[in-house]
């Protein structure tokens, strides 16, 4: 989605990098953080409900992949 993550950056598990964000070199992003902006900064911590919704959406994409793979 157009985010740029520079070299030697560490992104924690469950962190979300917003579209268009630029995460500077060497930055460490804590788990479950929401990062946005130029430069990318942690704006807040994602809630457990948000993280669950993201997992749910990812599962739906996988199901659609399997469905459409059989249609071509």
TrEMBL record:
Gene3D superfamilies associated with the record: Hexapeptide repeat proteins
Membrane-spanning ranges: none
UniProt keyword Ribosomal protein, yes or no: no
Protein name according to UniProt: Possible carbonic anhydrase
Coiled coil in keyword set: no
Entry keyword set: Plasmid
InterPro entries found in the cross-reference section: Transf_Hexapept/Carb_Anhydrase, Trimer_LpxA-like_sf
């Amino acid at each position: 989605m157009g985010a740029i993550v520079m070299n030697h950056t560490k992104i924690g598990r469950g962190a979300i990098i917003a579209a268009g964000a630029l995460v500077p070199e060497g930055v460490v992003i804590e788990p479950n953080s929401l990062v946005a902006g130029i430069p990318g900064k942690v704006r807040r911590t994602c809630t457990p409900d948000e993280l669950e919704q993201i997992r749910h959406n990812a599962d739906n994409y996988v199901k659609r992949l399997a469905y459409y793979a059989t249609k071509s």
